[in-house]
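Worked Example 4.2. Read the sequence first, then its structure tokens.
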Amino acid sequence: MASRIYLVDSDVFITAKNVYYAFDLCPGFWQSVLHHHRDGRVFSVDRVRTAGSWLTHGSTATPS
């Protein structure tokens, strides 16, 4: 069976951070996202990476 590849939009990251997987409550979720990205299974478009750069800095505020 071929490996699946996922393209994730910013809403997935924002909702996860704000509702389900806050950085301090569930760091394993974010480590898993990074792990699967490094393994080539999870991607986002460049615009999401730029708009979501606040995620990598651990901010609790959403971008304006």
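Now turn to a second chain, presented in exactly the same format:
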Amino acid sequence: MHARRTVLPFSLLYHDSARWLFILLLFAGLLSTGWYGIPLIPRYFIGVVDLLSGVFALFSALGTIWGIMAYREFTKSSAAVIEARLAARRLDPTIGDYEYKSYNPVTREYEDGFVPSGPVDFWDKETTVPGWMDKGKYWHILLSLQSPGREIRLKVVRDRELPFGEGRRNVAVTEKDASEEGRALGRYTVRIPQWLVMNTEQQRFAELGLERQQLSALVSDVNRKIVAATHEVAGWERLRVRYPWRFMTFAIYLNKSLPLRIVYRQVIGELSRRQRAQGRACERQPCKRGRRRARRV
């Protein structure tokens, strides 16, 4: 008898539902702001103050801002995932459909998808991975999902096993093991698609017949989009592992839609980009100084 599992998806269908909800909030806020706010303008010039209408107009305007920012946030999240998959499949049309089976030492059976067997050193040469998979991308996601008191199994599966193309259109799925051993260890299995850990070494795509510069630009574009999609998926699944209850889905969506949080993320992201740019500039400066000294000599 199989143990019952709690399945928590990162669903594009849920994202679309949230987007429509915040579109409704946007238009409702606009209508309410106009209904309560426009009559306040002539009253202001004649010295009449309607405090109640002013409060309603203020909160309606704030609701409009919330709707705009939340809609953009969920649109950006969905677009990052979809664009990464499309870019990866342009480079490798089979990615997402590769068949692979891993041996499970507990059940002594082979199961669909890639998952390391046991607590081994992932960078050990004996730890083999499929040719279409990048160890670094896999390891980065696995480390970002770590949480105190949790045992994380990161499983790479085909799109149809999520499923990605139908139903809820799941990008990733977190499963809580409800067996006695699973509850004791706090075991969670996170399933992600193959294209999120795609191997983008240029030698894999030599048969495409593209020029070197064109292939480099294409690979760089794929890597950039995979990084953006990884950020979305890992951030979402990390919250799923930390708060593994179905009712927390609403709280997670609410948290991700808050304008203050969105602004904070944008500010932190911009500061991080500037720091990286300054770091690269500082790394280049010694080289330029060295060349100038060599020329003087």
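Notes for the reader: Residues 51-91 form the longest helix (41 residues). The mean pLDDT is 84.
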